[in-house]
Specification:
This protein is of the alpha/beta class. The chain folds into three domains: about 10-185, Rossmann fold, CATH 3.40.50; about 190-220, no CATH class; about 250-400, no CATH class. Helix content is about 60%, strand content about 5%. A five-stranded parallel β-sheet has the order 2-3-4-1-5, with helices on both faces. The longest helix is centred in the C-terminal third of the chain and has 41 residues, at about 300-340. The mean pLDDT is about 90. The structure holds zinc ion. Zinc ion (ZN) binds near residues 72, 83 and 88.
Length: about 400
Protein backbone atom coordinates (compact mmCIF):
# COMPACT_ATOMS: atom_id res chain seq x y z
CA UNK A 1 0.00 0.00 0.00
CA UNK A 2 1.34 3.45 -0.90
CA UNK A 3 0.12 7.06 -1.04
CA UNK A 4 -0.65 6.55 -4.74
CA UNK A 5 -3.24 3.86 -4.03
CA UNK A 6 -5.80 6.48 -2.97
CA UNK A 7 -5.75 8.10 -6.41
CA UNK A 8 -8.38 6.75 -8.74
CA UNK A 9 -7.54 6.11 -12.40
CA UNK A 10 -4.39 8.31 -12.41
CA UNK A 11 -1.69 5.69 -13.06
CA UNK A 12 0.22 7.79 -15.59
CA UNK A 13 0.42 10.81 -13.28
CA UNK A 14 1.35 8.81 -10.19
CA UNK A 15 4.15 7.10 -12.10
CA UNK A 16 5.72 10.48 -12.92
CA UNK A 17 5.29 11.72 -9.36
CA UNK A 18 6.77 8.53 -7.97
CA UNK A 19 9.85 9.10 -10.16
CA UNK A 20 10.16 12.71 -8.96
CA UNK A 21 9.75 11.66 -5.31
CA UNK A 22 12.51 9.03 -5.67
CA UNK A 23 14.92 11.61 -7.15
CA UNK A 24 13.92 14.14 -4.49
CA UNK A 25 14.72 11.54 -1.86
CA UNK A 26 18.13 10.84 -3.45
CA UNK A 27 18.84 14.58 -3.32
CA UNK A 28 18.01 14.83 0.39
CA UNK A 29 20.03 11.71 1.18
CA UNK A 30 23.08 12.99 -0.76
CA UNK A 31 22.93 16.36 1.00
CA UNK A 32 22.70 14.70 4.42
CA UNK A 33 25.83 12.69 3.62
CA UNK A 34 27.60 15.80 2.26
CA UNK A 35 27.83 14.04 -1.09
CA UNK A 36 27.39 15.93 -4.39
CA UNK A 37 23.78 15.98 -5.65
CA UNK A 38 22.83 13.39 -8.31
CA UNK A 39 23.24 14.82 -11.82
CA UNK A 40 19.92 14.24 -13.49
CA UNK A 41 16.74 14.74 -11.50
CA UNK A 42 13.05 14.39 -12.24
CA UNK A 43 12.36 16.70 -9.29
CA UNK A 44 11.55 20.39 -9.67
CA UNK A 45 10.43 23.17 -7.32
CA UNK A 46 7.05 24.17 -8.78
CA UNK A 47 4.22 21.92 -9.96
CA UNK A 48 0.82 22.67 -11.41
CA UNK A 49 -1.89 20.00 -11.08
CA UNK A 50 -5.02 20.39 -13.18
CA UNK A 51 -8.10 18.29 -13.84
CA UNK A 52 -11.90 18.29 -13.84
CA UNK A 53 -13.87 18.55 -10.57
CA UNK A 54 -13.68 15.36 -8.54
CA UNK A 55 -10.74 13.90 -10.47
CA UNK A 56 -8.69 14.28 -7.29
CA UNK A 57 -6.40 17.20 -8.12
CA UNK A 58 -5.83 18.25 -4.50
CA UNK A 59 -5.50 14.65 -3.28
CA UNK A 60 -2.84 14.05 -5.93
CA UNK A 61 -0.87 17.11 -4.81
CA UNK A 62 -1.23 15.99 -1.21
CA UNK A 63 -0.07 12.43 -2.00
CA UNK A 64 3.02 13.94 -3.66
CA UNK A 65 3.63 16.12 -0.59
CA UNK A 66 3.45 12.96 1.55
CA UNK A 67 5.90 11.08 -0.70
CA UNK A 68 8.34 14.02 -0.46
CA UNK A 69 8.11 13.99 3.34
CA UNK A 70 8.25 10.18 3.67
CA UNK A 71 10.75 9.00 6.30
CA UNK A 72 10.05 5.28 6.10
CA UNK A 73 13.19 3.22 6.87
CA UNK A 74 12.31 1.01 3.87
CA UNK A 75 13.61 3.79 1.57
CA UNK A 76 17.17 2.85 2.51
CA UNK A 77 16.42 -0.71 1.39
CA UNK A 78 15.42 0.42 -2.08
CA UNK A 79 11.73 1.00 -1.30
CA UNK A 80 9.99 3.97 -2.89
CA UNK A 81 9.10 7.02 -0.76
CA UNK A 82 5.38 7.40 -0.08
CA UNK A 83 4.68 4.45 2.22
CA UNK A 84 1.53 6.12 3.56
CA UNK A 85 2.19 5.01 7.15
CA UNK A 86 5.34 6.69 8.49
CA UNK A 87 5.08 9.89 10.49
CA UNK A 88 6.06 12.04 7.48
CA UNK A 89 3.45 10.52 5.14
CA UNK A 90 0.72 10.40 7.75
CA UNK A 91 1.00 14.00 8.98
CA UNK A 92 1.34 15.32 5.41
CA UNK A 93 -1.83 13.46 4.40
CA UNK A 94 -3.93 14.69 7.33
CA UNK A 95 -2.58 18.24 7.08
CA UNK A 96 -0.59 18.56 10.31
CA UNK A 97 2.98 18.27 8.96
CA UNK A 98 5.05 21.26 10.12
CA UNK A 99 6.61 21.66 6.65
CA UNK A 100 3.44 21.36 4.57
CA UNK A 101 1.37 24.56 4.43
CA UNK A 102 -1.96 24.72 2.66
CA UNK A 103 -3.41 27.88 1.12
CA UNK A 104 -7.19 27.93 0.62
CA UNK A 105 -9.62 30.64 -0.48
CA UNK A 106 -11.89 31.91 2.28
CA UNK A 107 -14.19 33.62 -0.22
CA UNK A 108 -14.22 33.94 -3.98
CA UNK A 109 -10.54 34.97 -3.97
CA UNK A 110 -7.35 34.01 -2.18
CA UNK A 111 -6.50 37.25 -0.40
CA UNK A 112 -2.91 38.31 0.13
CA UNK A 113 -3.50 38.88 3.84
CA UNK A 114 -4.44 35.21 4.21
CA UNK A 115 -1.28 33.88 2.60
CA UNK A 116 1.37 36.46 3.50
CA UNK A 117 2.67 34.30 6.39
CA UNK A 118 2.91 31.27 4.11
CA UNK A 119 4.80 33.20 1.43
CA UNK A 120 7.25 34.35 4.09
CA UNK A 121 7.66 30.74 5.24
CA UNK A 122 8.39 29.63 1.67
CA UNK A 123 11.69 31.54 1.84
CA UNK A 124 12.86 29.61 4.91
CA UNK A 125 14.36 26.14 5.33
CA UNK A 126 12.12 23.22 6.30
CA UNK A 127 12.14 22.32 10.00
CA UNK A 128 12.73 18.60 9.36
CA UNK A 129 15.49 18.99 6.76
CA UNK A 130 13.49 17.55 3.85
CA UNK A 131 11.17 19.90 1.92
CA UNK A 132 9.22 23.09 2.65
CA UNK A 133 5.97 22.45 0.78
CA UNK A 134 3.30 25.02 -0.04
CA UNK A 135 0.10 23.55 -1.44
CA UNK A 136 -2.25 26.09 -3.05
CA UNK A 137 -5.76 24.73 -3.53
CA UNK A 138 -7.79 26.50 -6.23
CA UNK A 139 -4.89 28.56 -7.58
CA UNK A 140 -7.40 30.02 -10.07
CA UNK A 141 -8.66 32.13 -7.14
CA UNK A 142 -5.36 33.97 -6.71
CA UNK A 143 -6.02 37.67 -7.34
CA UNK A 144 -3.53 40.22 -8.66
CA UNK A 145 -1.85 40.84 -5.33
CA UNK A 146 -1.69 37.27 -4.02
CA UNK A 147 -0.80 36.02 -7.53
CA UNK A 148 2.14 38.40 -7.69
CA UNK A 149 3.37 37.23 -4.30
CA UNK A 150 3.27 33.61 -5.52
CA UNK A 151 5.01 34.55 -8.76
CA UNK A 152 7.91 36.21 -6.90
CA UNK A 153 8.22 33.21 -4.59
CA UNK A 154 8.20 30.73 -7.48
CA UNK A 155 10.75 32.81 -9.41
CA UNK A 156 13.31 32.77 -6.61
CA UNK A 157 12.57 29.77 -4.44
CA UNK A 158 14.58 28.72 -1.41
CA UNK A 159 16.61 25.57 -2.26
CA UNK A 160 14.28 23.15 -0.46
CA UNK A 161 10.93 24.81 -1.19
CA UNK A 162 8.33 23.12 -3.40
CA UNK A 163 5.17 24.85 -4.63
CA UNK A 164 2.19 22.63 -5.52
CA UNK A 165 -0.56 24.57 -7.30
CA UNK A 166 -3.99 23.09 -8.05
CA UNK A 167 -6.51 24.41 -10.60
CA UNK A 168 -9.25 23.10 -12.92
CA UNK A 169 -7.29 23.85 -16.10
CA UNK A 170 -4.01 25.43 -17.16
CA UNK A 171 -5.82 28.46 -18.61
CA UNK A 172 -7.10 29.29 -15.11
CA UNK A 173 -3.62 30.15 -13.87
CA UNK A 174 -1.68 33.34 -14.71
CA UNK A 175 0.64 32.62 -17.68
CA UNK A 176 3.61 34.05 -15.79
CA UNK A 177 3.07 31.56 -12.96
CA UNK A 178 2.22 28.50 -15.03
CA UNK A 179 5.26 28.94 -17.28
CA UNK A 180 7.42 28.33 -14.20
CA UNK A 181 5.61 25.15 -13.18
CA UNK A 182 5.80 21.58 -14.40
CA UNK A 183 2.27 20.75 -15.50
CA UNK A 184 0.44 17.48 -14.82
CA UNK A 185 -3.11 17.05 -16.08
CA UNK A 186 -5.42 14.49 -14.47
CA UNK A 187 -8.05 12.86 -16.62
CA UNK A 188 -11.61 12.02 -15.60
CA UNK A 189 -11.50 8.59 -13.96
CA UNK A 190 -13.57 5.91 -15.68
CA UNK A 191 -16.87 4.74 -14.16
CA UNK A 192 -15.28 1.31 -13.63
CA UNK A 193 -12.28 2.77 -11.76
CA UNK A 194 -14.56 4.80 -9.46
CA UNK A 195 -16.81 1.80 -8.74
CA UNK A 196 -13.76 -0.35 -8.02
CA UNK A 197 -12.45 2.25 -5.54
CA UNK A 198 -15.82 2.35 -3.71
CA UNK A 199 -15.85 -1.42 -3.31
CA UNK A 200 -12.18 -1.78 -2.36
CA UNK A 201 -11.66 1.28 -0.15
CA UNK A 202 -15.11 2.10 1.23
CA UNK A 203 -16.59 -1.39 1.46
CA UNK A 204 -19.62 -0.41 -0.65
CA UNK A 205 -21.78 -3.19 -2.19
CA UNK A 206 -20.78 -3.72 -5.86
CA UNK A 207 -24.21 -2.89 -7.34
CA UNK A 208 -24.54 0.29 -5.26
CA UNK A 209 -20.97 1.25 -6.20
CA UNK A 210 -21.72 0.80 -9.90
CA UNK A 211 -24.91 2.92 -9.70
CA UNK A 212 -23.21 5.72 -7.74
CA UNK A 213 -20.19 5.73 -10.07
CA UNK A 214 -22.48 6.04 -13.11
CA UNK A 215 -24.54 8.79 -11.47
CA UNK A 216 -21.49 10.90 -10.61
CA UNK A 217 -19.71 10.50 -13.98
CA UNK A 218 -16.11 10.31 -12.79
CA UNK A 219 -16.40 12.72 -9.86
CA UNK A 220 -14.63 10.70 -7.16
CA UNK A 221 -15.45 13.00 -4.23
CA UNK A 222 -19.14 13.07 -5.01
CA UNK A 223 -19.20 9.33 -5.58
CA UNK A 224 -17.60 8.72 -2.19
CA UNK A 225 -19.99 11.12 -0.47
CA UNK A 226 -23.07 9.67 -2.17
CA UNK A 227 -22.03 6.11 -1.37
CA UNK A 228 -21.28 6.79 2.29
CA UNK A 229 -23.48 9.74 3.39
CA UNK A 230 -27.22 9.03 3.60
CA UNK A 231 -28.00 12.79 3.82
CA UNK A 232 -26.24 13.40 0.49
CA UNK A 233 -28.21 10.55 -1.09
CA UNK A 234 -31.47 11.98 0.25
CA UNK A 235 -30.61 15.43 -1.14
CA UNK A 236 -29.90 13.97 -4.56
CA UNK A 237 -33.12 11.97 -4.52
CA UNK A 238 -35.15 15.08 -3.73
CA UNK A 239 -33.40 17.07 -6.47
CA UNK A 240 -34.26 14.35 -8.98
CA UNK A 241 -37.93 14.53 -8.00
CA UNK A 242 -37.96 18.22 -8.88
CA UNK A 243 -38.77 17.73 -12.59
CA UNK A 244 -42.05 16.04 -11.58
CA UNK A 245 -43.00 18.79 -9.14
CA UNK A 246 -42.80 21.80 -11.42
CA UNK A 247 -46.09 21.19 -13.23
CA UNK A 248 -47.56 24.57 -12.23
CA UNK A 249 -46.30 27.97 -11.03
CA UNK A 250 -46.97 27.18 -7.35
CA UNK A 251 -45.02 23.92 -7.57
CA UNK A 252 -42.14 25.63 -9.39
CA UNK A 253 -41.78 28.39 -6.80
CA UNK A 254 -42.01 25.96 -3.90
CA UNK A 255 -39.40 23.67 -5.42
CA UNK A 256 -37.06 26.64 -5.92
CA UNK A 257 -37.43 27.74 -2.31
CA UNK A 258 -36.71 24.22 -1.07
CA UNK A 259 -33.64 23.82 -3.24
CA UNK A 260 -32.16 27.10 -1.96
CA UNK A 261 -33.04 26.25 1.67
CA UNK A 262 -31.39 22.83 1.46
CA UNK A 263 -28.22 24.42 0.05
CA UNK A 264 -28.16 27.03 2.83
CA UNK A 265 -28.68 24.35 5.48
CA UNK A 266 -25.86 22.27 4.03
CA UNK A 267 -23.52 25.27 4.06
CA UNK A 268 -24.51 26.03 7.65
CA UNK A 269 -23.76 22.51 8.84
CA UNK A 270 -20.37 22.41 7.16
CA UNK A 271 -19.50 25.90 8.42
CA UNK A 272 -20.64 25.90 12.03
CA UNK A 273 -18.09 23.54 13.49
CA UNK A 274 -15.21 25.13 11.62
CA UNK A 275 -16.25 28.68 12.53
CA UNK A 276 -16.59 28.05 16.26
CA UNK A 277 -13.07 26.61 16.31
CA UNK A 278 -11.60 29.48 14.28
CA UNK A 279 -13.20 32.12 16.49
CA UNK A 280 -11.94 30.44 19.67
CA UNK A 281 -8.44 30.15 18.23
CA UNK A 282 -8.36 33.78 17.18
CA UNK A 283 -9.64 34.93 20.57
CA UNK A 284 -6.97 32.86 22.29
CA UNK A 285 -4.34 34.34 19.98
CA UNK A 286 -5.58 37.83 20.90
CA UNK A 287 -5.09 37.01 24.57
CA UNK A 288 -8.70 36.64 25.69
CA UNK A 289 -9.30 34.12 28.50
CA UNK A 290 -11.55 31.21 27.53
CA UNK A 291 -15.13 32.47 27.37
CA UNK A 292 -13.88 35.83 28.70
CA UNK A 293 -13.96 39.39 27.36
CA UNK A 294 -11.81 40.47 24.45
CA UNK A 295 -8.94 42.87 25.08
CA UNK A 296 -9.66 46.48 24.00
CA UNK A 297 -9.20 47.31 20.35
CA UNK A 298 -9.46 43.75 19.02
CA UNK A 299 -13.13 43.77 17.96
CA UNK A 300 -12.12 44.78 14.41
CA UNK A 301 -10.03 41.65 13.95
CA UNK A 302 -12.91 39.44 15.05
CA UNK A 303 -15.24 41.31 12.69
CA UNK A 304 -12.83 40.65 9.83
CA UNK A 305 -12.84 36.92 10.57
CA UNK A 306 -16.63 36.91 10.68
CA UNK A 307 -16.77 38.61 7.27
CA UNK A 308 -14.44 35.95 5.85
CA UNK A 309 -16.63 33.23 7.32
CA UNK A 310 -19.75 34.75 5.75
CA UNK A 311 -18.05 34.80 2.36
CA UNK A 312 -17.07 31.16 2.74
CA UNK A 313 -20.64 30.20 3.67
CA UNK A 314 -21.95 31.81 0.50
CA UNK A 315 -19.42 29.79 -1.48
CA UNK A 316 -20.38 26.51 0.19
CA UNK A 317 -24.03 27.23 -0.57
CA UNK A 318 -23.07 27.92 -4.16
CA UNK A 319 -21.20 24.59 -4.34
CA UNK A 320 -24.24 22.69 -3.10
CA UNK A 321 -26.42 24.46 -5.67
CA UNK A 322 -23.89 23.56 -8.37
CA UNK A 323 -24.19 19.90 -7.43
CA UNK A 324 -28.00 20.12 -7.67
CA UNK A 325 -27.72 21.81 -11.08
CA UNK A 326 -25.39 19.13 -12.36
CA UNK A 327 -27.72 16.37 -11.07
CA UNK A 328 -30.63 18.05 -12.89
CA UNK A 329 -28.62 18.40 -16.08
CA UNK A 330 -27.75 14.68 -15.87
CA UNK A 331 -31.45 13.89 -15.45
CA UNK A 332 -32.53 15.80 -18.59
CA UNK A 333 -29.56 14.47 -20.53
CA UNK A 334 -30.88 10.97 -19.77
CA UNK A 335 -34.37 12.04 -20.89
CA UNK A 336 -32.86 13.32 -24.13
CA UNK A 337 -30.93 10.06 -24.64
CA UNK A 338 -34.18 8.10 -24.34
CA UNK A 339 -36.01 10.48 -26.69
CA UNK A 340 -33.29 10.14 -29.30
CA UNK A 341 -33.06 6.37 -28.82
CA UNK A 342 -29.35 6.67 -28.01
CA UNK A 343 -27.63 3.60 -26.57
CA UNK A 344 -25.47 5.35 -23.94
CA UNK A 345 -25.65 4.11 -20.34
CA UNK A 346 -28.04 6.30 -18.33
CA UNK A 347 -26.49 8.31 -15.46
CA UNK A 348 -29.71 7.80 -13.50
CA UNK A 349 -30.40 4.19 -14.34
CA UNK A 350 -32.11 3.83 -10.93
CA UNK A 351 -34.88 6.25 -12.00
CA UNK A 352 -35.61 4.75 -15.40
CA UNK A 353 -39.43 4.69 -15.05
CA UNK A 354 -39.55 8.44 -14.27
CA UNK A 355 -37.17 9.16 -17.14
CA UNK A 356 -39.30 7.09 -19.53
CA UNK A 357 -42.42 8.99 -18.50
CA UNK A 358 -40.71 12.37 -19.02
CA UNK A 359 -39.30 11.20 -22.37
CA UNK A 360 -42.73 10.16 -23.65
CA UNK A 361 -44.47 13.30 -22.34
CA UNK A 362 -42.19 15.88 -23.99
CA UNK A 363 -40.16 16.55 -27.12
CA UNK A 364 -36.35 16.57 -27.55
CA UNK A 365 -36.60 20.32 -28.30
CA UNK A 366 -38.24 21.03 -24.95
CA UNK A 367 -35.65 18.87 -23.18
CA UNK A 368 -32.86 20.88 -24.80
CA UNK A 369 -34.62 24.08 -23.74
CA UNK A 370 -34.70 22.82 -20.14
CA UNK A 371 -31.01 21.88 -20.16
CA UNK A 372 -30.31 25.42 -21.38
CA UNK A 373 -32.45 26.86 -18.51
CA UNK A 374 -30.28 24.99 -15.99
CA UNK A 375 -27.11 26.33 -17.60
CA UNK A 376 -28.60 29.85 -17.52
CA UNK A 377 -29.20 29.46 -13.78
CA UNK A 378 -25.51 28.62 -13.28
CA UNK A 379 -24.51 31.71 -15.26
CA UNK A 380 -26.87 33.90 -13.22
CA UNK A 381 -25.30 32.59 -10.01
CA UNK A 382 -21.86 33.42 -11.48
CA UNK A 383 -23.07 37.00 -11.91
CA UNK A 384 -24.10 37.04 -8.24
CA UNK A 385 -27.83 37.11 -8.91
CA UNK A 386 -29.63 36.30 -5.62
CA UNK A 387 -29.81 32.47 -5.47
CA UNK A 388 -33.59 32.31 -4.97
CA UNK A 389 -34.25 34.56 -7.99
CA UNK A 390 -31.93 32.53 -10.22
CA UNK A 391 -33.36 29.18 -9.13
CA UNK A 392 -36.97 30.41 -9.46
CA UNK A 393 -36.30 31.50 -13.03
CA UNK A 394 -34.96 28.01 -13.70
CA UNK A 395 -37.81 26.02 -12.11
CA UNK A 396 -40.36 28.19 -13.96
CA UNK A 397 -38.60 27.37 -17.23
CA UNK A 398 -38.59 23.66 -16.36
CA UNK A 399 -42.40 23.53 -16.29
CA UNK A 400 -44.24 21.45 -18.85
CA UNK A 401 -45.10 23.01 -22.21
ZN1 LIG B 1 6.12 7.30 4.44
Amino acid sequence: MTVWDDLVGQERVSERLDGAARDADALVTAAAADAPPPEASRMTHAWLFTGPPGAGVTQTARAFAAALQCVSPDRALGGAPGCGFCDGCHTALIGTHADVSTVVAMGAEILYKHMKETVRKSFTSPANGRWQIILVEEAERLNEKSGNAVLKAVEEPAPRTVWLLCAPSIEDVLPTIRSRCRHLNLSTPSVAAVADMLVRREGVEPDVAAAVARATQGDVDRARRLATDPAARARRASVLKLPLRVEDIGGALKAAQELVDVAAEDAKQLAEEMEAKETEELKAALGAPQGGRLPRGTAGVIKELEDDQKRRRRRTQRNTLDIALSDLTGFYRDVLALQLGSRVALANGDAEDVLERMARGSSPESTLRRIEAIAACGRALDRNVAPLLAVEAMTMALRAG
